[in-house]
Amino acid sequence: MPSFSAVLAANKQNAPKAIRPVAVLVGGTSGCGRGVAEVLAKYAQGNAHIVLVGRSEEAANEIFASFPKPVDGAKYEFVKCDVSSMRNVGIVTRDLASRLDKINYLVLSTGLLSLAGRRPTEDGVDYKIAVHYYSRFKFAHDLAPLLEKASTAGEPTRVLTILDSFMGAPSGVRPDDMTLEKNYSLQNAALVATTYNDGAIAALAKRYPTVSFSHANPGIVNTNAHRDMPFGIKQLTGLVATLISSPITTCGENMVYTLFDPSIPTGAHYRTPKGEDVKGKPNLSDADIEKIWQHSIEICDGK
Ligand SMILES: NC(=O)c1ccc[n+]([C@@H]2O[C@H](COP(=O)([O-])OP(=O)(O)OC[C@H]3O[C@@H](n4cnc5c(N)ncnc54)[C@H](OP(=O)(O)O)[C@@H]3O)[C@@H](O)[C@H]2O)c1
Fold first, then answer.
1. Where are the domains of the chain?
2. What is the pLDDT of residues 151-173, one digit of tens each?
3. What fold does the segment set 4-296 form as a domain?
4. Mind listing the pLDDT tens digit for each residue in 36-76?
5. Pocket around ligand 1 at a 6 A CB cut-off
6. Residue burial 22-34, b: 16+ Cβ < 10 Å; e: rest
7. Angle at the Cα of 210 (from 27 to 131), degrees rounded to 5?
């Protein structure tokens, strides 16, 4: 496992120097995504186009104010999107596809902690799984042509989904109930979201062989993820998080270690919070992966 000082040294060495990277961070207005945005901005030293996709323009502007001043032609921009609706995601991906020349880094970290039961969205899927999985799949799938443009130019091209790269398992694929209408529980929802992220990484890497796709667990990070928990639980999780968690910029450096890692230029990768490969992955069969792909296309395509 690389020490944190080794992570810092590797990031400094591997940061792209001869290009102006374009980074799109969905969920970058808070927590782990914010940490990655701050670290990317630090290494780019003002020479980057960074797009934060989220709900809070106020949070994005506060983050941009802490970034190095953009040099000529570089810029920081906020794009508003509630990602629980695939129609909303489609509006944003079509907008980005119409005006960006390329994407080098696509970072997906939207999430929420909630004890609520299944809450169907207009797409017929659960709200929490839409935020943790379907929207992420749609961003990666719709924006793949822009990622391919960066790889064709010989530039680094990475997709990083931040959720839980340990827990996904074949038991998360129920061919007769892919949207968990019949088998919903908090545990099954978490299993499905992590398993579908695992499968999507493999399916996307197969279809876009010049792009690198990673699924990483961020570890325990001091974020605002528990904000919607009931009183008491919120205080307790907040206290535990403060005692044993990492700051978001530490998480950012660790996640950027995977984004910059020269040893994984293409393919599907499953990473620990410290940027090591998760042992035993992938553990899904080709049939499971294809089922996840087909189901995701059915839910997300054409919206
Ligand atoms: N923190 C940890 O210790 C930890 C551990 C393991 C896994 N994770 C996973 O890592 C991911 C990031 O978590 P985090 O701790 O960084 O959480 P966080 O601080 O709450 O950040 C989550 C981000 O998702 C955005 N978001 C939530 N719902 C959205 C929606 N409907 N539309 C658009 N944006 C939405 C939030 O935006 P708003 O600010 O607008 O709500 C926020 O920017 C999550 O998937 C989480 O499960 C976290």
1. 4-296
2. 999 999 999 999 999 999 999 99
3. Rossmann fold (3.40.50)
4. 999 999 999 999 999 999 999 999 999 999 999 999 989 99
5. 27, 29-33, 54-56, 59, 81-84, 109-112, 131-132, 162-164, 217-218, 220-221, 223-225
6. bbbbbbbbbbbbb
7. 20
